[in-house]
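User: Reviewer 2 asked us to show a designed sequence for the structure in our supplementary figure. I'm pasting the C-alpha cells here. Could you produce the per-position amino acids so we can include them in the response letter?
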C-alpha cells in the first residue's frame, strides 16, 4: 500500500460519509443502510474488481430506482418496505452474478449512451426538486411539475432557517469543489455539526438526521404473494441494468485514461457480489459512481487499496462521530445531494447530440419520460425508445448505388460523391444496414426496383460488407433476389461477403452464387468479372 492510496482513501471517506447519508434519504431508508453499502461495496470491489480507481458505493440513481421499486408495493409497515428494498438489492446482485458467469457483459451496451444521458438528466432534475421540500421544511411530492406547483403554493410556510442553512451549505460545496485537494463535503458536514451547537435547529422546526444505528441485523425475507415476488424480480432487473450501465461507463472511461485492462464479465461478478452481500447486511445497492471515482482518481489513488482505506475511514468516522452526524440538519444533506447532481444537470451532452443530429430525440424522450412517468417507468420507456430507434434504423435501410472514384478502384455512394463514375451496364449497390429477418425483404426489394428500372443494366453487383452473417430469412431473400434478376436476363455478383454468410448461402442451395465465379472479396474483382462476362457475351456497351 502506497502513501498516495492512504491519502486518497481518507479523502474519499470524507466525501462518502455525507453522500451516503444523503443518498439514504433519496431511497427513503435510515442512513446506516447507506453506510453498510459503502463499506461492503468498497471492500468487495477491491477484492474482485479490476479498476484501480473505481469507488463502488451507493449512488444517487440506484437510490432513486430503489425508492421507486419499493413504492410499487402497497405494504404499510416500514419493516416490510425495508425488507422489500434489501431483497431487491439481493436479486439485483444475483442478476449480476448470473450474467457474469453466463458471460453476458455485452449487456452493458443494452442501455445506449444517449438513453443513459437523458435518464441521468431527467433523474437529476427530479432528485434536485425532491430535495427542496427538505430545505424549506414543507411537504410536497409527485412529478417535477407537481413538486414545483406544491412548493410555490406553500410559499408562506417556507422555513427561513432551513432555506438559509441549505443555501449556505450549497454555496460552500460549490466553492470548495474548485479546490480538489480539499474534502469539501466532509468540511461542510463538520461545519454543519458545529453549527448545531450554536443554533437550535429542532427549535426552529428544522429536521435533523437522527440516530444512526449500526447494530448488525439479520436479513428479513418479505412476506409477499407469488405475484408480488414476480413483480419484485421484474423491477429488480432494471435496477441491475442501470447500475451496471452506469458502473461500466465509469470503469471503462477510467481504464481508457490510465491504460488499464478491464473486462465487462469480471466487473459484472465484482459488482454483483458487492450487491449480494450489501443486500444481505441490509445495505443499499452499490455501483461505481462517476463523482466518487473521479474524486478518488483526482486524490492520487494508484491501486484498489485506496478503496479499502476509504472503507476503514467510513467505519471509523461513523463509529467515532456517528452521534454527531445524527445532529446534522437535513437541509445540509439536501445541499450535498444537489451538489452531487450538478454534473448530471449539465445540458452540454444533450446539446452535443443536437449538434451531431444523432439520437437527440431518444435522449430528450428519456429525460421527459423519467420526469413525467417516474423513475422506474421512465427508465423502461427510455430503454424502449432506444430499442425502437434502433429497430427503426435497421428496419428502414437504404440501398446506395456505388460508382468508381476516378481510377482509384474505390467505389463510393454516388449520392454523396456526384463525381463518382457510373457504368450503366453494371449496377453496383450496397445496403446501408446488415441484412437480417427484419429488413432483408424490404432492402432487397428496393434494390430490385432500382435494377429493373434500368433496362441497359445487364449485371448487378451487391456489396455486402455490413452483413457479417445472415439468418435464413435474409439468405432466402437473397436467393429470391438472384432469381428475379436472372429471370430478367441480369447476372448477380456478390462482393465482400464474409465467410460465415458465404457458407450459409452455400448451405441454402445457392452454391453457384457463393462460388468463386460469382462471389468476390472486393468490389473491383466483382466489377472486373462482370465486365469480362459482358465482353464475352457481346453485351458490353
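Assistant: Here is a per-position design you can include in the supplement:
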Amino acid at each position: 500500500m502506497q502513501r498516495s492510496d492512504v491519502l486518497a482513501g481518507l479523502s474519499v471517506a470524507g466525501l462518502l460519509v455525507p453522500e451516503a447519508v444523503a443518498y439514504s434519504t433519496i431511497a427513503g431508508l435510515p442512513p446506516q443502510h447507506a453506510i453498510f453499502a459503502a463499506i461492503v461495496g468498497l471492500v468487495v470491489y477491491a477484492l474482485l474488481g479490476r479498476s484501480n480507481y473505481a469507488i463502488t458505493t451507493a449512488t444517487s440513481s440506484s437510490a432513486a430506482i430503489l425508492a421507486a421499486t419499493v413504492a410499487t408495493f402497497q405494504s404499510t409497515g416500514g419493516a416490510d418496505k425495508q425488507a422489500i428494498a434489501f431483497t431487491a438489492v439481493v436479486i439485483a446482485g444475483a442478476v449480476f452474478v448470473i450474467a457474469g458467469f453466463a458471460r453476458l457483459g455485452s449487456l452493458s451496451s443494452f442501455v445506449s449512451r444517449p438513453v443513459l444521458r437523458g435518464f441521468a438528466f431527467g433523474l437529476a432534475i427530479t432528485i434536485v426538486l425532491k430535495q427542496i421540500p427538505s430545505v424549506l421544511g414543507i411537504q410536497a411530492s409527485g412529478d417535477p411539475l407537481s413538486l414545483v406547483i406544491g412548493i410555490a403554493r406553500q410559499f408562506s410556510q417556507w422555513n427561513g432557517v432551513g432555506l438559509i442553512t441549505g443555501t449556505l451549505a450549497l454555496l460552500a460545496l460549490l466553492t470548495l469543489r474548485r479546490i480538489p485537494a480539499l474534502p469539501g463535503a466532509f468540511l461542510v458536514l463538520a461545519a454543519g455539526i458545529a453549527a448545531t451547537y450554536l443554533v437550535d435547529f429542532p427549535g426552529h422546526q428544522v429536521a435533523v438526521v437522527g440516530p444512526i444505528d449500526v447494530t448488525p441485523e439479520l436479513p428479513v425475507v418479505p412476506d409477499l404473494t407469488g405475484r408480488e415476488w414476480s413483480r419484485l424480480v421484474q423491477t429488480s432487473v432494471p435496477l441491475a441494468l442501470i447500475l451496471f450501465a452506469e458502473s461500466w461507463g465509469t470503469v471503462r472511461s477510467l481504464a481508457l485514461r490510465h491504460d488499464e485492462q478491464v473486462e465487462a464479465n469480471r466487473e459484472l461478478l465484482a459488482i454483483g457480489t458487492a450487491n449480494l452481500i450489501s443486500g444481505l447486511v441490509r445495505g443499499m445497492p452499490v455501483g461505481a459512481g462517476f463523482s466518487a471515482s473521479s474524486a478518488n482518481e483526482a486524490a492520487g489513488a494508484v491501486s484498489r487499496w485506496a478503496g479499502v482505506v476509504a472503507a476503514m475511514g467510513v467505519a471509523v468516522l461513523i463509529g467515532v462521530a456517528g452521534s454527531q452526524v445524527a445532529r446534522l440538519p437535513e437541509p445540509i444533506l439536501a445541499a450535498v445531494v444537489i451538489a452531487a447532481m450538478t454534473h448530471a444537470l449539465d445540458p452540454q451532452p444533450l446539446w452535443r447530440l443536437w449538434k451531431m443530429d444523432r439520437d437527440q430525440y431518444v435522449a430528450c424522450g428519456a429525460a421527459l419520460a423519467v420526469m413525467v412517468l417516474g423513475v422506474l417507468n421512465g427508465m423502461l420507456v427510455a430503454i424502449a425508445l432506444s430499442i425502437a430507434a434502433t429497430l427503426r434504423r435497421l428496419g428502414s435501410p437504404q440501398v446506395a448505388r456505388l460508382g468508381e472514384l476516378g481510377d482509384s478502384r474505390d467505389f463510393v455512394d454516388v449520392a454523396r460523391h456526384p463525381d463518382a463514375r457510373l457504368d450503366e451496364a453494371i449496377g453496383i449497390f450496397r445496403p446501408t444496414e446488415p441484412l437480417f429477418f427484419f429488413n432483408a425483404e424490404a432492402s432487397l426489394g428496393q434494390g430490385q426496383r432500382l435494377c429493373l428500372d434500368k433496362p441497359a443494366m445487364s449485371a448487378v453487383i451487391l456489396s455486402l460488407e455490413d452483413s457479417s452473417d445472415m439468418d435464413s430469412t435474409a439468405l432466402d431473400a437473397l436467393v429470391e433476389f438472384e432469381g428475379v434478376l436472372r429471370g430478367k436476363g441480369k447476372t448477380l455478383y456478390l462482393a465482400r461477403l464474409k465467410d460465415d454468410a458465404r457458407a450459409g448461402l452455400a448451405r441454402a442451395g445457392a452454391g453457384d452464387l457463393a462460388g468463386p465465379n460469382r462471389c468476390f472479396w472486393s468490389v473491383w474483382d466483382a466489377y472486373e468479372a462482370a465486365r469480362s462476362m459482358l465482353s464475352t457475351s457481346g453485351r458490353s456497351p
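For the response letter, you might also mention the following. The chain has a mean pLDDT of 86. The radius of gyration is 30 Å.
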